[in-house]
Amino acid sequence: MRFAYPGGVEVYPEPGLTLTLGSGVTALVGENGAGKTTLTKLLIGLLRPSAGSVTVAGLEVAKITVAAMARTVGYSFQNPDDQLFERTVQAEVSFGPRVLRRSAEGIERGVAWALRACGLEGKEDVHPHDLGLSERKWVAIASALAGEPAVVVLDEPTLGQDYPSRERLRSLVRELDDRGRSVLVVTHDMDFVGEACPTAVVLSHGRVRYSGPTSKAFADHSVIQEAGLEPPHVDSLARMLGLSECVSEADVLSAWRR
Amino acid sequence: MAGGLSLYAEGKSLLHRAHPLTKGALTLSAIAIAFIAPSIGWVLGIGVILLVLVTAAGVLRRLLAVAAAILLPITLLLLAVQGFANANNRTVAFALGPIVYYREGLAIAALAALRIACLVCATFLFSFTTRPADISEALMQRGLSTRMGYVVQSALQIIPQTLDMAGRIQDAQRARGLETEGSLPRRARAYLPLMLPLVLSSLVATQERAMALEVRGFGLPVKRVARFEFADSPLQRVLRWVLIGAVPAAIAARLAGWR
Amino acid sequence: MGPDRGGARGDRRPPRGVALSSTSLVFENVSYAYEEAAREAVSDLSLSIAVGEWVGVTGPTNAGKSTLCLLAMGLAPHFFGGRLKGRVVVLEKDSRELSVIQRSAEVGLLFQNPFTQISGARERVDDEVGFGPECHGVSRLEVAARVEEAMALVGISQLAARHPMDLSGGQLQRLALAGLLAMRPKLLLLDEPTSQLDPAGTAAIFDVLAGLHASGITIVMVEHRLETLCELCPRVVAMVAGRIIADGPPDDVFNREAVQLRVGSPVFTRLAREAGLSPPWPVRLRDATAVFGRRLA
After folding, report:
1. Are A154 and A141 in contact (CB under 8 A)?
2. Each residue of B192-206: pLDDT tens digit?
3. Per-residue pLDDT tens over the stretch C186-198
4. What is the pLDDT of residues B42-73, one digit of tens each?
5. Is the pLDDT of residue A36 over 60?
6. What is the pLDDT of residues A151-190, one digit of tens each?
7. How many CB pairs under 8 A join A and C?
8. pTM of the model
9. CB pairs below 8 Å between B and C: how many?
10. DSSP for residue C297
11. Nearest residue on chain A to B2, alpha-carbon basis
């Protein structure tokens, strides 16, 4: 697949991007300008490729409208203010399932679950703009989840989040995985990638530099450096101690105990 | 993201180098006199002068492109309606099937169309040869307050910014299931849920921007330092007075019986 | 200037007899509530920051960290209204006596959202950077010099002729920082300055800040990434629900249970605790390597 913005800036140069993402939780990492957000927009049809095709859950994206894709893919934007437009948190989160014409129970179930998973219980009647930036991000994430889509795309969910929020994000991602959803997390936060995403795709200058288990992603530091990234803190510690590859705290502890 | 709204075309012609206020005076004067002058001959004369200036500035091709898009439909509409329905119609010019066109109506339509053409020409001549930053700078050097100057400067970026915001909000709504593609009524309906969030987001953005401006010291009662100098000359100063003065002179002439 | 172990709130008034000109920012029992807000955003805050310090501020959401910055800048209460109790003294001047624009020559505030920080009145990046100094009536030559210096410092010199609206979020944040630096502030307040930047961009900004710190500028930085905070800031203030719960060197602050529970701790600290090592636990990579390494040996 190839794509170029109207200004002629080609995001994915010849011979184009070929990538297959499986189920489970995948992290999409790369420096700014590598093409991560472009890729996610292509996934939901907000952008159309100039060559090649994009298929999600068996549906060819070019053949259906963006709104129709929303049944299958829940997308949470990087800047929540691009996404929020209702007057209360409740209205915002239930917008998706309402527009998708889910049944009343389906809407209630989806919204209740999304609010709980995102820590927004008790804030249903608050105006989103009265919340801080990090809470607005959670509202955006909840909005993407309420429709119970099969695929969830989170664009930079860890930005500006405090430690308890990052923990909540980890459990959310795990819960989505348990429920059999495919999750794609676009992020810079390598610690989060190590802790919560078993699969990683490294994008650099519009090319896929690595695609596979996260545990092996940091084995070759040159790939990471060339992509403008840094390894997780636990990886740095493990290297300095001479321990084998570690990407999560659990890894370090088990390596340490041996 | 789009840049600001600007039609400015790089160039080194006399017009490009002229003081913005001179060009402003020229534009306003030309438009006013085109509408005051009594007959086609005079208006045509102004139009020709403008075209000469446009060519000298090197922007003829650009002007023809935009002018054609704007003027052609207006001219045809005027000719079609006035030629057929004007109250003073007496002399038949020609007939298109059952519809009869009269000379008087056509003449009036032609005059109106020419006046509008002069307006378009003068406005685009100004826009093509003047940087937006220069307009506000020139006005502020002449005493416009910094606050008003800011309003002028930011006005040009407001529209692309708002369009940008509208696009992003609509993308977000589409990504949540709001159908915007398809039949015309459906596409039109999709604009309704856009309005409230657009206004709200604009208000919030405005508040944040106001805070950021204060943090940078906007509004301090300091003597303004000119950002750049404009080439000016006694000739241009005289020219500005002549151009502006021509307007009341033309009005007086009309009142005195200029035909 | 050394840390005064005066209890959990870290009461930081300078001792009698010391000239106040050595302080950059002082909060004396400050409480503030926004207009129409039920609860206070900050309560009974007392904090003293000396000139040249680099202080990290952290805490969960709604801890009052951003409010702290807004109070220091004067936007609270001058812009937002609200109820202010206590004294905020910035560079020796009481906050109530100075408006925000009067303070802008010496204090700079970088907001979280880069998109709304540009003036919207300039078509070139270099003109945008010069907006602040121009508002202060700085001469044309001086403005040009400062613009060049600021752009080089944050690494956007190559973007000088671009239209600000064409920049990405990360580039915009650097532009906003350059715009502040062009005013040569003595006190810099940064609300999560690298939130929009990728790791390379983040490292570049922190290098800039390190340089500014070395030249004597006081920096107050709100940051969620605790490992970064511990690495860079000699002093950390931990806030929860509008109050300061700890104030001191990072090694002290993150070894407190209250902080670990309510704010979190760097990954090294958690690892050391889980691995059963005895306190005090390390907060930095260097120290963690040493501590773990000793046990391996």
Report:
1. yes
2. 778 877 888 888 888
3. 999 999 888 777 8
4. 899 999 999 999 888 888 888 888 888 888 99
5. yes
6. 999 998 988 788 888 899 999 999 999 988 889 999 888 8
7. 89
8. 0.82
9. 110
10. -
11. A7
Strands (E), chain B: 92-96, 99-102
A75·B173 Cβ contact <8 A: no
In the predicted model, is pLDDT for residue B3 greater than 50? Answer: yes
Nearest residue on chain A to C200, alpha-carbon basis: A228
Q: Rounded CA gap, A122 and A125, in Å?
A: 8
pLDDT at residue B218, as a whole number: 92
Token pair, residue C195, equals: 């939130």
Q: Is C30 within 8 Å of C44 (Cβ atoms)?
A: yes
The whole-angstrom separation of Cα B259 and Cα B254 is 7
* Chain A interface includes B2 (CB < 8 A): no
> How far is it, in rounded angstroms, from Cα C46 to Cα B111?
76
In this complex, is the C-beta atom of A99 within 8 Å of any C-beta atom belonging to chain B? yes
Identify the closest residue of chain A to B1 by CA–CA distance.
A7
Contact A85 B201 (CB under 8 A): yes
Task: Locate the chain B residue with the closest alpha carbon to C166.
Answer: B1
| Candidate from A32, A165, A237 with C-beta closest to C170 | A32
Question: Which residues share a beta bridge with C188?
Answer: C108, C219
Q: Is the CB of residue C196 less than 8 Å away from at least one CB of chain A?
A: yes
Q: Does C56 touch chain A (CB under 8 A)?
A: no
- What radius of gyration do chain B's Cα atoms show? 24
* pLDDT value of residue A2: 53
The yes/no answer to whether this complex scores an ipTM above 0.95 is no
Task: State the Cα–Cα distance between residues A75 and A39, nearest whole angstrom.
Answer: 12
Structure token pair of residue A64: 């259906």
Dump pLDDT digits (tens) for B132-171: 888 888 888 888 888 888 988 888 788 888 888 888 888 8
Q: Are A199 and A184 in contact (CB under 8 A)?
A: no
Nearest to A100 among B177, B182, B197 (CB): B177
CB contact under 8 A, A82 and B169: yes
Residues B124, B117 contacting (CB under 8 angstroms)? no
Segment 106-165 of chain B within 8 Å of chain A by CB? none
pLDDT tens by residue, B84-130: 777 777 788 787 777 788 888 888 888 899 999 999 999 988 888 88
Q: Are C45 and C28 in contact (CB under 8 A)?
A: no
Which of A220, A230, A137 has its CA nearest to residue A192?
Answer: A230
Residues 39-68 of A with CB under 8 A from B: 44, 46, 65-68
Rounded CA-CA distance C166/B3 in Å is 6
Chain B partners of A67 at a C-beta cutoff of 8 Å? 174, 177-181
Q: What are phi and psi of A161, to 5 degrees?
A: -100, 140
